[in-house]
Design goal:
With 111 residues, the protein is of the alpha+beta class. It has two helices and five strands, in the order ββαββαβ.
């Protein structure tokens, strides 16, 4: 199962953690993993190339995990990044309609 954790602070998404394999099909043929991986890459590329490179992210291919943290963004860049995070969230919600047993998404609030 692919586990997705989106963390909010003051109504803004500030962190995204994705880990695990969907198990939909074998490695290299898994369309669910491919879809989620593409969406995560879209967030990273959007943050790096369009908004601001000043953020933390890590990719661990061996453990199939990605961590993104934009909590250090200034208010203006944080607001822009919400477009990427919300687009990611909405697209995952659409994927959940057909692939619910392969993806789990949860939301947390950071104090």
């Amino acid at each position: 199962m692919i586990n997705i954790r989106l963390v909010r602070k003051n109504n803004n998404f500030i962190k995204l953690n994705v880990y695990g394999h969907s198990g939909y099909d074998r490695l290299g043929r898994d369309i669910v993993c491919a879809a989620v991986s593409s969406l995560v890459q879209g967030v990273i590329i959007g943050l790096e190339e369009v908004i601001c490179k000043d953020f933390y992210y890590s990719i661990d291919d061996e453990n199939a995990s990605v961590n993104i943290d934009i909590s250090k963004y200034n208010e203006k860049d944080l607001e822009k990044a919400q477009i990427l995070f919300n687009t990611f969230r909405l697209t995952i919600e659409k994927l959940l309609l057909d692939y619910r047993k392969y993806i789990k998404m949860k939301f947390e609030e950071e104090q």
